[in-house]
Description:
The protein is α/β, with parallel strands linked by helices and 323 residues long. Strands 7-6-8-5-9 form a 5-stranded mixed beta sheet. Strands 2-1-3 form a 3-stranded parallel beta sheet, sandwiched between helices. A 3-stranded antiparallel beta sheet has the order 10-4-11, with helices on both faces. Strand 1 (32-36), helix 2 (43-59) and strand 2 (63-67) form a beta-alpha-beta unit. It folds into 2 domains: 32-123 and 248-316, D-Maltodextrin-Binding Protein, domain 2; 127-238, 3-Layer(aba) Sandwich (D-Maltodextrin-Binding Protein, domain 2). The protein has 12 helices and 11 strands. The longest helix has 24 residues, at 2-25.
Amino acid sequence: MGHSMTLKHLVTLFLVMTLPGLQAQSFPTKPIKVIVPTASGGPSDTCMRAVALAMQTLLGQSITIENITGATGSIGLNRVASSAADGYTLVVPSAANTASLATRPLNSFDVMNGFKPIGKICNATQTLVIAPALGIKSVDELIKYAKANPGKLSFGSIGIGSSQHLVGEMFAVATDIDMQHIPFRGEALAATEIAAGRVQLMFMAGAKPFMDSKLVVGLATTNKDTWAPMPTLPSLAKTSVPGFTYNGWNGIMAPAGTPEQVVQILSKALSEALKEERVRSVILSMGNMPGLGTPEELSEQMKSDVYMFKKIMRDRNLNFNDQ
């Protein structure tokens, strides 16, 4: 008798414990919208589209992607932050947004506190690319050319205070060369200007397709060691700029009040999607590496970014508040 009572209690306890989980399991019951706060065809956009198809199958609901550009991503970020915190409106921030937060905290959306991390989609290196018209084949040649032509070089980025901008500034100081910064609304637009020779160089997060189509020439990556998807390029740290390393990323986040169980369901779908060969091959073809898709990995990355960007600003005496 005592035994059956215990069993009954256990079953009741089990049901009480799992009921909230079972309710959350009904998520999602309608399509999910993902806002990419950068231009169509950019690294965040391409990475998100690669995982979206696989995630749709796993979640049993369609995922629509909308690109909302402007203000280094803040317009798209604000749109999602003010949406219902129910997991049906998500956003894809990137290193550009942690850079913006570090450089201009007063004018930037606080990605650290405004959202909950779901997981990292892609890990990126930045690639130092140059205009084919320069005819330069190495980092050393570029530095020599820049010093022989002071004030003649310009470098592109995806916005003032973006990670591409900061890494460019880091490079200018590390090599003691003089360059003018030109911001664009996305890497595709910058690539067109570099191909035409109107802008000479850029640190790109999604360089490989532009290199493959011969719009730009890649010289080196900002990864610590050789970057697996682009094994022919040296890492900058192994050229004449020792100690120069940086890695970009993008990931999926939900509004801050999103229930933890919903975050876990989305994160599990993302992690599973990132294991699929078709998804991985798209990410690798861009010159990126797949992330793990966990909230922990993304959270750690963002903390590390903000620390590093603030250090660069202190070390280089940079101030972006008036820009």
